[in-house]
Specification:
This protein is an alpha/beta fold. It is built from five helices and six strands, in the order E-E-H-H-E-E-H-E-H-E-H. It is globular, with a radius of gyration of 15 Å.
């Protein structure tokens, strides 16, 4: 696990990686949580790039991912992905959350990114059960890394201790190694 997948506790806006993944909303407008922090840290360029995507594509659909510059962040890029709002598991949430990870990883692969960082997508105000979301995240990332050269490294970054403990338990149990 520790060669290609890393787990840390901290602030995603401080990481110097090729791309940080933003748990965005459909309008790419910035908001609370990770999304708000990334927009604030990235500065006005992020809003400008997201505005261009809104004009061209109408925003970003749930499960999809789009790429912008990192603006003022230490990362070169931001991959914005829109996670599903939890609705009891009856509205394709699992499939849509998987797509968030796959589509973000595909953008990283297409742009030959060496290292990207994921937050805990959909587990904040969108209400996705944290342990289930972490299992989906680790499985999707692990499967992708086994079959692709890029990205070379994925960081799961948890802002809070609860999510960090959940990811740590899952990663240790699965003993991810490549």
């Amino acid at each position: 696990m520790y060669e290609k997948i890393t787990l840390i506790k901290g602030d995603i806006t401080t990481l110097k990686v090729d791309a940080v993944v933003n748990a965005a909303n459909n309008g790419l407008l910035g908001g609370g949580g990770v999304d708000g922090a990334i927009h604030r840290g990235g500065g006005p360029l992020i809003a400008q790039y997201c505005g261009e995507i809104r004009r061209e594509k109408g925003g970003c659909e749930t499960g999809d991912a789009v790429l912008t510059s990192g603006g003022n962040l230490p990362s070169k890029y931001i991959i914005h992905t829109v996670g599903p709002v939890w609705n009891g598991g009856h509205s394709r949430e699992k499939e849509l959350l998987r797509n968030c990870y796959r589509n973000s990883l595909m953008l990283a692969k297409e742009h030959h990114m060496k290292a990207i960082a994921f937050p805990n997508i959909s587990t904040g105000v969108y209400g996705y059960p944290k342990e289930e979301a972490a299992k989906i995240a680790t499985t999707e990332v692990s499967n992708f890394l086994k079959n692709n050269d890029f990205p070379e490294k994925v960081i799961f970054i948890c802002f809070d201790q609860e999510n960090y403990n959940i990811y740590n338990k899952i990663l240790k149990k699965e003993a991810y190694s490549f």
